[in-house]
């Protein structure tokens, strides 16, 4: 009897939060994995590698926690409208960054074609060098 009730309550939880269970799951799993790496760092010889991995997973868990806390702050009358405006603004920022990345990719491709002639399959020559040229030319203006 008790098991059937537990299964029903888990199903209701998964249906009711409209995707927030994924954030909860990411938060819990990354925290557990980070704790695992933290504990194994004490037993192993290469502590730096395990501590770095644990910090990475802890950082993802903290980001998921802040996103989850942000959901509860939407119900406050002072912070809620600001969070809603921030969400709408982020949609505009993402579309702007997509257009900017498209323009930058076009510039990098053009500079690479002009500078190196025939197309090369080397990523460093195709993208990294023109990107650093953009940075150098912007620094030279300032």
Description of the structure:
By secondary structure, this protein is mainly alpha-helical. The chain folds into 2 domains: 1-73; 90-142. The chain has 5 helices and no strands. The protein is extended, with a radius of gyration of 24 Å. The model has no long low-confidence stretch (mean pLDDT 77).
List the helices and strands and how they pair.
Elements: H1 2-16, H2 20-43, H3 47-73, H4 80-116, H5 123-141
Helix pairs in contact: 2-3, 4-5
Number of domains: 2
Q: What do the pLDDT scores average to?
A: 77
Number of helices: 5
**Principal-axis shape:** extended
What is the helix fraction of residues, given as a range?
Answer: over 70%
Largest sheet: none
Report the radius of gyration as a whole number of Å.
24 Å
Give the total of beta strands.
Answer: 0
> Hey, roughly how much beta strand do the residues contain?
under 5%
| Low-pLDDT stretches | none
Structural class: mainly alpha
Straight-line N-to-C gap? 73 Å
List SSEs in N-to-C order.
HHHHH
**For this entry, what is the oligomeric state of its chains?**
single chain
Question: Tags for this entry?
Answer:
single chain, mainly alpha, 2 domains, extended
In short:
The protein is mainly α and 142 residues long.
